[in-house]
Amino acid sequence: MREKDIEEYLRKKVKTAGGKAYKFESPGNDGVPDRIVIFPLNKIYFIELKAPGRKPRPLQVKQMRDLQNFGCEVLVIDSKSGVDDFIAEMGELNGKNCS
Length: 99
Description:
Layout: H1 3-16, E1 20-23, E2 35-39, E3 43-49, H2 58-69, E4 73-77, H3 80-93
Parallel strand pairs: 3-4
Antiparallel strand pairs: 1-2, 2-3
């Protein structure tokens, strides 16, 4: 499975769950996470997507650590089941079924 397929799956599942999954591009800041996912009630997540078994590059790890140091939630997801787990967790946090 390709990273692109997981990213598209995430986008669709987030939309179905009532959120937004914006493509994150920051000129001059290589290595930022792929998506900013926003759910109601100020639930904001930076998501780095990877093909199964792939790991973030050192620059990506640095960018994620920088965001975490600002108190941001940062996740790495490398499978459709990882997307499903994320969406299920969002449903539990909001007291509803988001799957």
